[in-house]
Amino acid sequence: MKKIFTSLCALLMASTMCMAGYTLRVLTFEDGSEASGFEAMAGVDNYVSSWSEMIPAEQYGDPILYGESGMGESEQFYTWYDGGNTELYSELNEGYGSYAYWSGGEAISHYWTENYESYGTYEQQLTAYRPGSNSIETAGGGHNGSNHFCVHFGYADNSGWGLATVSSIKFNDGVARVIDHVWINPTTYTYYCITGGNELTAALGEDGIIWLEARGFASASDEEPTETLTFRLFDGQGTATLDWTKWDLSSLGEIEKLEFSMYGEGEGSENGYGLSQPAYIAWDDMAVRFPSADPDPEPEPTSYSRTGLTAGNFGTICLAYNVNEGDYSGATFYKVAERNATNVVLEEVTSLVAGEAYIFEAIASEISCTYSGEKVNTPATATTANVLQGAFETTTIPSGKWFLKDNKLWCSTGTQTVGANRAYLTGITPAAAAPVPGRRRLNMPIQNMPTAVSNTADTQAKVRKVMIDGKLYIQRDGSIYDMTGSCVK
Predict the structure, then answer these.
(1) Gap between the Cα atoms of 337 and 319, Å rounded
(2) What's the pLDDT tens digit per position in 239-269?
(3) CA separation for the pair 139, 130 (Å, rounded)
(4) How far apart are CA 445 and CA 132, in angstroms?
(5) Which stretch of DSSP H or E encloses residue 80?
(6) Contacts of 391 (CB under 8 A, 6+ apart)
(7) Coil, strand or helix: which one is 146?
(8) For residue 177, what pLDDT band results from cuts at 50, 70 and 90?
């Protein structure tokens, strides 16, 4: 079977890992990952045994973050310790004479949505911004589809209005180590204010920038950091971190304590009382280096799955391993077989080659693939024939390239990303005009529309549905017929 993209603007020529010399232990916040030394307290004298018990039922004002009175507690009561694994420890910051999340801290969460306009207030302060749902969800929002993550709140500056100190994450056994990396993601509250502002802040202006800062301290008792790193979260020129993004922290060196803080510059970043944008950032899968004299090789994965799909919708996929015929379910896969003056033609395949990128049509809510063969470390490069550029990890899409979202092709502004094991399109241009970043060029509602992805049977390989001047026609053996069957050319 073949499928043809037709358009109003026709298209032409979108946990534990072993490394050399050390082992990475990963703080995942997932139930079942608690090692023998795990210890957490979600209330006064209330020790808990799982990460789930650390998640507040109410995102703002819940007693485990704000005390029974809602005004904090005189003694520390929200702490967690990943003992026996990463050895990382955190507790709420002390501020204004009490311990409460408004003084800064690291709160465990599972809330996420892409509907930041409806869920973008302080009452949704623990909600991560993730594509995939217009409602607040509580599963699958963490990095790599996990359920749990952490939300940092707090910043310190010299305005007189910020916190005197921010909360810290430290190694509770007193040993300095290298934190290799962490995955970061925005919250709906922050993204809402960045884009539209609220009663406390204006939206970020053209010269505005919001930075995330990581401060590394060689000793937990030090008052000044040994090294600092900055990450550009948002700016008025279109830079926006809008999905889980890996941040390399290894250049902080061996540290005993880590602090996150946020600061801004330019229009919309402050209101005369310091940082005006909400100082929240979600983070997950913090990886710590532990010495390994003789590390074992990282076990090879045996399968791949992707959930949350809608039957009839299209997506992209690029895997590092072969998938043989019969070793997958949940989708029909296609390669780019041809690109001519009016169409990009997709041809069904029954197996996947490692490193190659494909388009799939979901036939169920989940894709499941069983791997075979050796791992490929680098995706194949897009060619004139195959315009799909695959990605094994989250990758920024270059400006002017195309990506598939919600069954539509969109032109990248250079700030969007494509997720791990996905692909974007390159080397295609609308016939009527050059690519316009951010402008939709192909609308694919799939059902009974001239811009649909249309089918042709294998036995009628020369029969295609095509779009000419906004009308749908049938092309057969070089002749053109209208939808009544009359030959028009």
Answers:
(1) 19
(2) 788 899 999 999 999 999 999 999 888 888 8
(3) 12
(4) 18
(5) strand 79-83
(6) 318, 379, 418, 419, 420, 421, 422, 423, 424
(7) coil
(8) very high
- How far, in Å, CA of 179 to CA of 248, rounded? 9
Query: Looking up tokens 């409806």, which residue turns up?
Result: 118
pLDDT at 160: 62
361: CB partners within 8 A, 6+ apart = 3, 312, 313, 314, 331, 332, 334, 453
Helices (H) and strands (E) in the chain, counts: 2, 39
Cβ–Cβ under 8 Å, residues 183 and 247: yes
What pTM value is reported for the model? 0.57
H/E stretch holding 192 reads helix 188-196
**Nearest to residue 281, comparing CAs of 200, 214, 212?**
212
In terms of C-beta density within 10 A (0-12 exposed, 13-18 middle, 19 or more buried), how is residue 417 classed? buried
pLDDT tens digits, one per residue of 440-472: 333 332 222 222 333 333 333 355 666 565 566
For residue 411, what are the β-bridge partners? 402
**Kind of pairing, strands 127-129 and 111-113?**
parallel
Specify the DSSP element, H or E, that contains 64: helix 63-66
The size of the chain, in residues, is 489
